Amino acid sequence: MHFENQYVPAYYVFDAEGKLRHFQAGGSGMKMLEKRVNRVLEENEKTQQ
Fold it and tell me: If you write DSSP's letter for every residue of the chain in order, what string do you get?
C-alpha cells in the first residue's frame, strides 16, 4: 500500500476492517490521535464480544 505521504510525521488509524478512520499530519495534536486510536480499539473490543 502506498500513501504518497507529503507530511512527516504522518499518522494513519485503520479499524479492524481496514477502513481509514483518522489521518493526522504533523507532530501536534497527539491527544486527538490518542483519542481516535482508543475509540477504534474500544469499537473493536465491542465487536469481538
Answer: ------SSSEEEEE-TTS-EEEEEESSS-HHHHHHHHHHHHHHHHHHH-
